[in-house]
Amino acid sequence: MGQYFTNQKLNSNIVKHKVIIGTVPLSFNTDNGVFSKTKIDFGTRFLLETLTSLNLKGHILDVGCGYGVIGIYVSKVFPTTVDMIDVNKSALHLAKLNAKENHVKCNIFESNAYENVSEKYDYIITNPPIRAGKKVIYEILMNASNYLLDHGVLYLVIRKNHGAKSIIYDLEKLYDVTILDKHNGFFIIEAKKR
Questions:
Q1: Residues ≥6 apart with Cβ < 8 Å to 169
Q2: 3-class secondary-structure state, position 165
Q3: CB 87 within 8 A of CB 62
Q4: Which DSSP helix (H) or strand (E) runs through 45?
Q5: Where do runs of H (alpha helix) occur along 52-143?
Q6: Which tens digit of pLDDT belongs to each residue from 125-164?
Q7: What is the rounded distance in angstroms from the CA atom of residue 126 to the CA atom of residue 87?
Q8: HSE on the CB side for 108, CA within 13 Å?
Q9: Within 10 A of 8 (CB to CB), how many other CB atoms are there?
Q10: Which residue of 50, 95, 150, 155 has the fewest CB atoms within a 10 Å radius of its CB?
C-alpha cells in the first residue's frame, strides 16, 4: 500500500463495505492508497465506541479523516456540525462520496494538518496517521489547542507500541489529560484545553 498521507497515483479499485459501529449501520467506499481499506481498524472503532457514551454537541473537526469513518459516525450519532480534513485527495473524494451515501452533511476539505483550517472547535477527534511520523503527529496533537474553543477537547486513539506513554506525557504539558479507556494496547485519550 502507498503511504496514505500522500497523493500518489494508484490504480483505483473502489470497494464498498457495510459495517455496524455500536448499533449504527453504515456503508463505506474504500480504495487503494487509503488507510484501513479492507475494514475499519480496531483503533478507530474503539475510539468511536468509547465516544458513544459521551454527549458531544457543537462543532467538531475530524483531522486525518481518511474515507470518513469518524466524521460520518459522529454526524449520525450526535447533534453536531462536522468538518473533516485530510491531505490525501483520494481519501477526501471517498469521504465526500461516503457522506452522501450515509445521508450526512459534513464540510470536507483538503488541509495538511491545520494549514487550511480557520475556525475553532468544541472538539477535535483524530486517529493520528502514525506512518506520517512523529513530527506530523505532534503537529496535529499539540497544535490542536490553537483550534479548540476555550472549553474545547481533543479526543484521540493511540497504541502503546506507537508511543502512547510519551505522547500522554507531552500532551499533559498543554492539556488536562484523561485516559478514557484502554484495550489491546490501544489508549483512548481525552485532552481538555487549559
A1: none
A2: helix
A3: no
A4: helix 42-51
A5: 69-77, 89-101, 134-143
A6: 999 987 777 888 999 999 999 999 999 999 999 988 667 8
A7: 14
A8: 27
A9: 13
A10: 150
Q: What secondary structure letter does DSSP report for 146?
A: G
Q: C-alpha cell of 99? A: 457522506
Q: Are strands 186-193 and 15-21 parallel, antiparallel or unpaired?
A: unpaired
Q: Count, in order, helices (H) and strands (E) of the chain.
A: 5, 9
Q: Give the residue carrying C-alpha cell 491545520.
A: 114
| Cell, residue 142 | 499539540
Burial 43-79 (b: 16+ CB within 10 A, else e): bbbbbbebbbeeebeebbbbbbbbbbbbbbbbbbbbe
* Dist CA 61 CA 63 (whole Å): 6
Alpha helices in 102-194 (DSSP H): 134-143, 164-171
| Other CB atoms within 10 Å distance of the CB of residue 181 | 15
All domains in the chain, ordered by first residue: 15-193 (3.40.50.150)
What cell was used for 30? 474504500
